[in-house]
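Technical note accompanying the year-one report. For the benefit of new consortium partners, we illustrate the data format agreed upon in the data management plan: each record pairs a sequence with a structure-token string. No post-processing was applied to the example shown here.
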Amino acid sequence: MSKTSAASALLDADHPDFLRITPEEATELGQRALEAAGYSGEDARITIDQLVDNSLCGYRFAGLPRVLAIATDVKTKQPRKPVSIVRETPVSALVDGGNNIGYVAAYRGAEIAIQKAKASGMATVGVFNSYYRGRNAYFVEKIVKEGLVAFHTSAASPRVLPPGSTKPMLGTNPICFGFPSDNGPVVVDMGTASFMWGEVMLHAHLGEPLPEGVGFDEQGRPSTDGKAVLKGGVAPFGGHKGYGLSFAIQALGILAGSHLAHGNVRDYAFHFWVVDPEIMLPGGEFPKSMSEYVKEIKDTPKQPGVDEIRIPSERAYRERERRLKEGILVDRKVVESLKTIAAGGMIEYQ
């Protein structure tokens, strides 16, 4: 195979504005920057593990660029305390995130949910007093690998404008479901915003325009300028239906304690509902039936020109396997900014 043919076969084509680095190199660079920003040890390891996995799964904005957001967020510079349970029963826990980054606080919440669901058959866990938490799918995949069914929502600070309004009142508010199968986790993860906030931040940092119709400036006027949209917000996806889902997820955030840290009902809060399928379908029946369900969907007759019917999470898992071998592409400007942070310097990111 020629060099040109080999390059064209790569999952991510090389580009002068990007650097191709190994997952190990990405981990080392990200960890150094996180340590310079004030996160070290186990907390840094938990955070960078997700960020690199996000890149492997094809989520450019949710990978190393999130270190830039963490390093420049005012909450990162404020005091933190250990993540702790403030209220619990055998099947529930309310967790104070201690102003720790959500990558850490939600990770601990997922661990608690796993422990309680295994012990009691089901669990509900809420985590408050935290912020950025990355991809819901990362936590849900962890839960599902323990043989459990998971439902996870994340309420956030206002970035999304209700239809017809000029001011953001909702978070980007993703929702995620996870199911064990005989062939591995099946995860359904989606945001309820038309454009994720991390993508807005990355576009603003790189000077790239946003797509038409997703962003608004601080006066509520449509805009494709990332820096202007950072002062305004984005629309929910799917009009009133996405707005309705986002509204419900924000309400679940209240149940998870969103108002407890700062008296604001529209603040960050993460909610896990986890069930052991054995309490309803003993003997491993659910994973087997889930695999059968997936096979039936994939065996659906296809329209002309369609190679396959994919299920949720399938693309991400395939891309993860390829990038583990081929490496990941990271914007040169992001790499330069990370090196600046790691060296003790300052950058602007929001």
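Partners are asked to follow this layout when depositing records. The CA atoms of residues 172 and 193 lie 5 Å apart.
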